[in-house]
Design a protein that fits this description.
By secondary structure, this protein is of the alpha/beta class. The protein has one domain: TIM Barrel (Alpha-Beta Barrel), CATH 3.20.20. Helices cover 43% and strands 12% of the residues. Helix 2 runs parallel beside helix 3, helix 3 packs parallel to helix 4 and helix 9 packs parallel to helix 10. The mean pLDDT is 92.
């Protein structure tokens, strides 16, 4: 899953692909380099990020979706706003990737509304986040981070299944860096295989994150090597989707890992 931030302020590449033409060009590069999914976001969710209006988010993402809807790979919309979900799904995206796990007003309804068209039922990625982007890194606390994240993700997935969403449409994301300390993040990566026990495909989103900077002392754009290493570790522990900025380097490394797996 290639990350496409059509934003001015995302933590790693904010502003690089701010215009639709720049974002579309970057998406095409990621596809050539091996991305299977392009995850389009119009609002930064880095720690401390300020929310943007619905219209601003739509203005950022809809032209990109329209240009890429026939690009040959799946499109995902990275949003928590119900109306953005609805419009993105109508525009042709295949998946909703929500940091709030559909907890915001109307989000579950947006999924169920799209389900009325049986030919357009989307995939859904449910992520764990403690608190919200403005406060999530203010001293996060857990008694048992693995158990608590698993319980939350199971509850959110079960809610969807109870409303008739097939479980093979649901993926889960433990949310590295979203309300977790370095210790919590390392624990989740070390025991990543435990999330697969829930029975859903698991997404690993560790690319260029601050945990890697704390370990290496590297600035955001200098974290390619630890990002790739984290991707391989996650894949080896059962990750089915790897969400990354650096598609070519990650795909090449995964090819070697897959060859070793036989």
């Amino acid at each position: 899953m290639g990350i496409l931030n059509a934003t001015p302020d995302s933590f790693s590449d904010g502003g690089e692909f701010r215009t639709p033409s720049d974002a579309i060009a970057q998406a095409k590069r990621m596809i050539v380099n091996g991305a299977d999914i392009i995850d389009i976001g119009g609002e930064s969710t880095r720690p401390g990020a300020e929310p943007v209006s619905l219209q601003e988010e739509l203005d950022r993402v809809l032209p990109v979706i329209d240009a890429l809807k026939d690009c040959g790979v799946a499109l995902s919309i990275d949003t928590y706003k119900a109306e953005t979900m609805c419009q993105a799904l109508r525009a042709g995206v295949d998946c909703v990737n929500d940091i709030w796990a559909l907890r915001q007003e109307g989000a579950v309804g947006a999924i169920l509304e799209s389900d009325l068209d049986k030919d357009k039922q989307c995939g859904i990625v449910l992520m764990h986040m403690q608190r919200d982007p403005q406060t999530m890194q203010f001293d996060p606390e857990y008694q048992d981070v693995i158990a608590e994240v698993k319980a939350f993700l199971q509850e959110r997935a079960s809610l969807l299944e109870d409303k008739g969403v097939a479980n093979n449409r649901i993926a889960i994301d433990p949310g590295f860096g979203f309300g977790k300390s370095l210790e919590h993040n390392l624990k989740m990566l070390a025991d990543f295989d435990q999330f697969s026990q829930l029975g859903y495909p698991v997404l690993a989103g560790i690319s260029r994150k601050s945990m890697l900077g704390k370990l290496t002392g590297r600035d955001t754009n200098e974290r390619v090597a630890p990002s790739v290493a984290a991707a391989i570790l996650a894949a080896d522990r059962g990750a089915r989707i790897i969400r990354v900025h650096d598609v070519q380097e990650t795909v090449d490394s995964l090819k070697l890992w897959e060859a070793i797996q036989g």
